[in-house]
Amino acid sequence: MLHFTKQQSSNHNPSSICRTDLATLTLLLFSALAVLLTYSNQSSAFPPGDAPAPEAPMIAEASDEAKNQIQTFKVPDNFTVDVFAAEPLVANPVAFFVDYHGNFYVCESFRQNRGVTDNRQHNRAWVDDDLAAQSVDDRIRYHKKHLGDKISEYTRYDDQIRLIRDSNGDGQADSAKVFANQFNQIEDGTAAGVLARNGNVYLTCIPHLWLLRDNDGNNQAEQRESLHNGYGVRVAFRGHDSHGLILGPDNRLYFSIGDRGYNIKTDGKHFKNPQSGAVFRCDLDGSNLEVFATGLRNPQELAFDQFGNLFTGDNNSDSGDRARWVYVVEGGDTGWRMEYQYLSDRGPFNREKIWHPYNEDTPAYIIPPIRNFADGPSGLVFYPGTGLGPEFDNRFLLCDFRGGPANSGIRSFKLEPNGASYKMVDDQQPFWKILATDLAFGADGTLYVSDWVNGWNGLGKGRIYSFTTTNEQARTEGEDTERFLTSDLTEMSDENLVKFLRHKDQRVRQESHLELAGRNSLKHLVFVASESDHQLARLHSMWGLLVIARENIDQRPAVIDQLTELSDDGDAEIRALSARLLGELNADSASDQLVSMLQDDSLRVRHLAATALSYLRAEESIMPLMNAIDENNNVDPVLRHGLILALAANASDTHLVELAAKASPAQRLAIVVALRRQQSDQLAALLLDPTPAVVREAARAIHDLPITNALPQLAALISSPTPDDALMRRVLNANFQLGTSENADRIAQFASRNDITDSLQIEALSMLGDWTEPASRDRVLGAWRPLDERDAEIGRTAFINHLAGILEGSNAVRDHAIKIAASLNIKQIGPVLYAVLTNDAATAVQQSSALASLGLIKDTRHSELVNTSLESRHPLVRATARDQLISIDVTAATKQLARAVRSDNTIERQLAYNSLSKINNSVSEAVMLDALNRLQQKGIPDDTLLDVRLAAASHPSKIVNEQIDRLRSRIPSDKLAAQYMDTLAGGNMSRGRSIFFERTQVSCVRCHKIEGRGGDVGPDLSKIATDKDPKYLMEAIVTPNSATAKGFDSVQIIDANGLVHAGVIRKQTEDAVELVTAEGKRIAIARDDIDVMQKAKSPMPEDLIKHLSARDIRDLVAFLRSLKPNSTE
After folding, report:
1. DSSP string spanning 618-645?
2. 989-1121 belongs to which CATH class?
3. Which of 164, 246, 350, 420 sits at 20 to 30 Å (Cα–Cα) from 769?
4. If one looks up domain 41-50+74-474 in CATH, what number appears?
C-alpha cells in the first residue's frame, strides 16, 4: 500500500477489501498515482515567521471507505451521490470554496487540540488569563507563562489550504496540491474560511485576514499579505474561529468570527471587542473595515438571500439553550458574551432568555433570533437558482454538525417575511447521516459537501461528495449557468450583460451587475433599475449603482438622485433597498425622503429607512423617529432596532433625556438603548423611571458596559420594592463593586428582607462572605473585573448588624447564612449553631454543617458537642463528628474511625476512610492495610471500593501507598474501563446532576437531553437506566466507543458478495444482524454471509476523563442510574 504523507496507523481493516472488485482497486491505485505526482512539492511558498517548519500532516491512505459510506446517506430519490475527493487528496476539511472553473480551495486543519486549543482543556488559572486578555499579544504571553517548554507543541503542526482539481472532467478529483501552509504560529487559529476571486485567495485564520496570490501559476501562493491582524483575542472554545467569507452584492467581503473577540487597528481606526463574535465587512483590498453586527457566539457561515439580507446559524452554549437562526442586522447585537460560558447557568444568556425568539422578557438592546434551530450549525448556502431543481428555489441549506454522522447532515428551509424580519417555514432534512462541515455549489449547480468523517479532532481523513439531481431540465439549466460563469465577461457587451440581470441564478445576476459596475455603465443600470418589470434584475442594478457610487465620487450625485426616485417605487423591496443604499452613500439630500419612509406600509422599509438615517445626522428626523417608536410600541424588535440606531446617531444624550420627560414607555425604553449605544452617563436619569422595563434596561446598560460614573445611582436602588432578578442582581453587584461600608450594610440589610427570592438573598450573603477577597470575575456577567482586597471587618460588621433579620429567612437562606457567618468567624452565630445541632427537626445536612461551623469559630462547646454527636441518629452527623474529633483527640478519633469502616451505613464507611487518610499513626495504617487486604478478598462493599482506593493513595503511610500501587498495577494499563470498576456504586446523585448540567469542561448537556433540557446531538438519556447497567454507564463515560446507545450504533457490513450494507443496528442474534438503513428500511443479514462488520466511532469525546476525577465519574454514574421512567432526577 502506498503512503503519500507522514505514515499514520489506520483503523482500516485489510480484510474489508478482500472481496472488493478489481475495478475499485484499479481506481484506488490510479488515484494514488495521481496524488503521488501532484503531492511532489509541499514546501511552503512563504516564510513561516518565527515558528519552526511544521511536521508533515498525517493523512490516511486511499481506501474504499468514502465510496462505501455513500450507502449510509439519506438522500432524495432524485439525487445521485459520488465521491469527488477523498483521503489522501483531502483530509480534515473545515471549509472549502469552489470557483467557477472547478478549483477547490480546501481549508484543512491538523492543529485541533494540537495548537488550536480549548479552554475546557485547561485549569481555572488559564481561563482567568483568557478572560483578562485584551489583545492577541496578551494571549501569546499567558500561553508562554502556562505552557513553558510545552509551547513548542503549538507550532508543531499546521493548517493548510489544498487546491484540488478534476483535470479530466470525469467528476472525480485527480490533482491535489498544497496551495498555502505553515499556518502554525503560536497565536494561529484554525484555517476556517476561504474565498477565491480574480486571482486573490482570501483566508480567515486567526489572528489574520490573509490575502494569498499565486503569481507564477505553479498552484502555490508566493504572496501572503495580512490585510488585518487582531482577530482572536481569546481562546474560548475550539472552532470559534474566524470564518464565513462571502462576497456581498455590494462587492465587499463579509466574514465572521466566533466569541474569541477582536482588537484590530487598521486605516487609522480601532475596533475592539474581546467579548463576543461578530460579522465584519471590508473592501476587497481590506480597506474600509466595518463591524457589521456583534453579540454572536460562533456564526460559522454567512449567506445572503435574493434580497441581500444576511443570515447565519449561531451555536448554543451547551447549557440547555438552543442554537439560533439569526437575521444579521446592521448594527445589531444578538446578546452573547464569551464570559457567560464560564457561569454555571450562563448568567443573563439563560436567566434573561437572550437566546429565545422574541418574547416579553427579551432585553431591548438585542436582536432576538428568528428561531432556535439545529444543534451544530456550520456550513451554510442559499440556493442560487439553477442546478438542483425548483424544489430548492429560495431555500437555505445548513450543515448540522453533531460530532458523528448518524445524527448529522444538511437541513433545508425557506424564510417568509414577518414584519421587519422573517420567519422560518418548511424545514426539511434532505441530505442526512453525513458529518458535513461545509457545502458549496459548483458553477453548474452541483452541490458539493465536505465530510469530516467522525469525531471532533480530525482523523486524517476527509471527503468531498457531489450531490447531483436526476432532473434533466435542472441539469441543463445548470450547464447553461456554468457556460456563463466560466466565460470571459469582459468580452460580453453591455446589452448582453443587461439581459443576464434577469437570470434565474443569483450568481449570474451578481456577476453581471458587478461587471457592468466595473465598466461604469451607469446608463444601463439606471434603465434596468427604473424601467424593468423584473424585480430581481432591478435589485441587482441598484447594487451595481452602489458599487459605482462607492468607487467613483463624481458619479455619486447621479446615483443618489436615481435611488431617491426609486424610494417611491410601488415595489416594497425596491423601496427597502433604495433606503439601505441611500444610507450607505450618506445621502444627506435624501433625508426628507427617508424620514417620510418611516411611515411606509412595509415595516421592512421602515427599518431600513431608519438604518439609513443613522448614517446622516439629520436632526429633523428625531421627532418622526420618536413617533415611529411609539407606533411600533415594542411589537417588532428589528424595526425598533433600526429606529434606535437612528435616534442614537441624531440626538445628543442631553436631548434624549429631555425627550424622556414627555415620552411614552416604549419611547423611554428606546431612549435607554440609544443612550447605551452612546455609552452615556445620562443613563442614570432613567433609573428612576416609573416603568420597570425601562429601569431594568438602564441597569443593564450601566452595569454591563459598564458606565462607572453611574454605578452609585444604580447601587442606590437596593431598597427598591421590585423583586426583578435581572435588575436586583446588578444593583447588588454595583454595591459590591463600590465596596464601602455603606454598600456592605446595604447588602446585609437586603439579605435580611423577607420580600425577595431566596436566590437573591443567598447572593447577597455570598457577597458578604467574599467581601475581603472578591473574585476577579464579575458576579453577574463573569467578565474580568478585578477588585482590590478590602477590610474584612466591613463585611463582618454589616453581617453582624443584620444577623437577626437574616436568620428569619427560609431554611435555605438560614443554612447559607450559617456557613457564611462561620467562614467570617462571627462568634455570635454560635447559639444559632447550637440550636440547629440540638433541634431534632433539623436535617442531617444542617446538623453536620452546624457542627463543622462550631469548629470553625472555635466555640467553647465544640468539643462537648462533638462527643455528643458521635451518638447522633444521623450517619452523616456521626461521620462529621469523627472527622472533627481528629483535631481534638486523634487517638480517640482513630479508634472511632476503625469501627466506622465496618459500619452498615454507606456514608459512614465512605467518610471514615476519607478521615483516616488524614491521620498518620500506626492504628490508622493498620486499618488501611486491613482494608486493602479485604479489598483483594472482595470483602469491601461495592459502594466503598473507591473510597478505600483514594484513601490509601493519599494516606501518610508509604507502606499503604505502595500496597495500593501494587494492587492497581495488576489492572491492565490498556484496559481503561477496568481501572474504574470501583466507581459503579456509592456515588452522590445530586453532585452527579450538577456535573452533567453545569460542568463546562465535559459539557454533557451539550449533546444529551434529560427531561427536555439539553441538546439533540446524542441520545436522550431521560430513561437511560431502564436498560443500561452501571458498568455500561461508566464505560460510556470512560471509553465511549465501547458503549453506544441504541439507535446511535452505526455499522458498515460487507457481505460475501462484496455488497456494502450500512445502517443502525436494531437487533442482533446468533444467526443474523438486523439493520435500519438511512432510508428507514429494515434488512437482516445472516452472520454466515458477513465478511466484515465495522462499527462507526462514537462522536462522544474520548478524553472526558481528563476533566473528571474518579469521584466525579462515580457521581455521574449515580445520577445516570437514577434516570428511569417516572424518576425525579
Report:
1. -GGGHHHHHHHHHHHTTS-HHHHHHHHH
2. mainly beta
3. 350
4. 2.120.10.30
